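Researcher: We plan to redesign the surface later, but first we want a full-length starting point. Tokens attached.
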């Protein structure tokens, strides 16, 4: 057993695990699970809350052999759960295949991103979990199960976003499609009047669109339009709506832009355009804390307008807020489950006390719009509130109890959530 990882990637959570174990085979993992009273799987440490924390044993899958097996006839790829999206994307692109969407960071682990409901953007693009067509899972008794659409009782949708509660995922099967090219253009300072009047048109005008704002008088400080070159070109004239084209690459947090993927309308492979950040650079800014809420798409403009008076609160704390669209999911615990959604994502400076106060205020303002917090971000929502906004959470808790009656995969976070 190796010394434990001390903190998450952002440094705002100090892990309490007694050990961090790195099995090198699925058989080793099976033995570990069967022999360990309590353990928690650790992905790429990119969660901002205690979902991957434990006072027992953490296990990382980074030591399992990389697997990337393409079944061209079925349009499916099987990948090792510990591989990052950057690794998976590079392997697929080299073989002429693609995933339908990626998160803004390619550095996160495939299984960890799926388990927490992580998403990209696009009115036709659901969360990354919806691409999952099968999972290999080590259960609490050390046995290996395979879950897919043929598994009874909606098990696949229960497992797509499972928070680590149903077992340790060792392999994921994902739907793929032929590779495609994307071109990213950026416009600056789209006025609030235009955001409010044309929000739906702008967000649906390309394969993937993101708005960045500080909720101040600049409106949408940046609008990133990611156009699939095999589809019709964007038709909304952002300049006519009051924005201006960026005259060079820009960073979402208005830092030095060396880490961002290529902009300026230059076509490139999906794997090098759908993320905001290059896989060869450290992700985002590091010393930060993130929160995010997914709301029904029809409430997006009203929610943004409701948040604007908080601009003075955000001014010293907010690095950037990103607004994205997410198509409806079928996964029980996906934040976009059952509804077309808009995500409002906040990246704050790493000041835990100030962030807690800001998050409480944000959740108060967003309460009328039925927000669902992202599972991997900070939130002030009570367990009772989470059970209200996630209608299948009670069903999920019952399934977790059935599959793991002794609580082998329970940490303090899951114990509170599923009790």
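Model: Full-length starting sequence:
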């Amino acid at each position: 057993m190796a010394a434990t990882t001390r903190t998450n990637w952002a440094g705002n959570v100090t892990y309490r695990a007694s050990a961090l174990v790195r099995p090198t085979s699925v058989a080793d993992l099976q033995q570990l699970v069967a022999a360990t009273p309590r353990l928690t799987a650790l992905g790429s440490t990119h969660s901002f809350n205690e979902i991957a924390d434990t006072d027992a044993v953490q296990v990382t899958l980074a030591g399992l052999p990389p697997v990337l097996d393409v079944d061209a006839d079925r349009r499916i790829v099987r990948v090792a759960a510990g591989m990052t999206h950057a690794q998976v994307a590079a392997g697929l692109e080299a073989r002429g295949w693609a995933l339908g969407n990626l998160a803004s960071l390619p550095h996160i682990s495939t299984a960890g991103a799926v388990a927490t409901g992580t998403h990209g953007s696009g009115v036709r693009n659901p969360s990354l979990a919806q691409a999952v067509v099968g999972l290999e899972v080590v259960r609490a008794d050390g046995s290996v199960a395979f879950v897919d659409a043929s598994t009874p009782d909606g098990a696949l949708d229960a497992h797509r976003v499972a928070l680590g509660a149903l077992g340790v995922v060792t392999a994921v099967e994902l739907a793929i499609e032929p590779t495609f090219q994307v071109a990213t253009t950026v416009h600056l300072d789209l006025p609030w009047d235009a955001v409010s009047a044309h929000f739906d048109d702008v967000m649906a005008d390309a394969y993937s669109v993101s708005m960045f704002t500080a909720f101040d008088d600049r409106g949408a400080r940046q609008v990133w339009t990611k156009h699939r070159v095999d589809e019709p070109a964007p038709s909304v004239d952002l300049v006519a709506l009051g924005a201006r084209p960026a005259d060079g690459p820009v960073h979402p947090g208005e830092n030095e832009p060396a880490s961002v993927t290529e902009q300026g309308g230059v076509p490139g492979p999906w794997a090098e355009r759908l993320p905001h950040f290059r896989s060869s650079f450290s992700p985002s800014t590091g010393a930060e804390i993130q929160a995010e809420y997914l709301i029904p798409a029809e409430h997006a403009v009203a929610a943004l307008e409701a948040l604007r008076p908080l601009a003075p609160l955000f001014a010293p704390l907010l690095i950037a807020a990103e607004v994205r669209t997410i198509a409806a999911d079928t996964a029980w615990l996906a934040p976009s489950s059952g509804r077309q959604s808009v995500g409002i994502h906040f990246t704050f400076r790493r000041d835990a006390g100030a962030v807690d106060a800001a998050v409480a205020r944000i959740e108060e303002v967003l309460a009328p719009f039925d927000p669902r917090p992202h599972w991997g971000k900070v939130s002030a929502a009570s367990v009772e509130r989470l059970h209200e906004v996630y209608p299948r959470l009670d069903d999920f808790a019952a399934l977790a109890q059935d599959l793991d009656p002794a609580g082998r995969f329970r940490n303090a976070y899951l114990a509170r959530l599923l009790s």
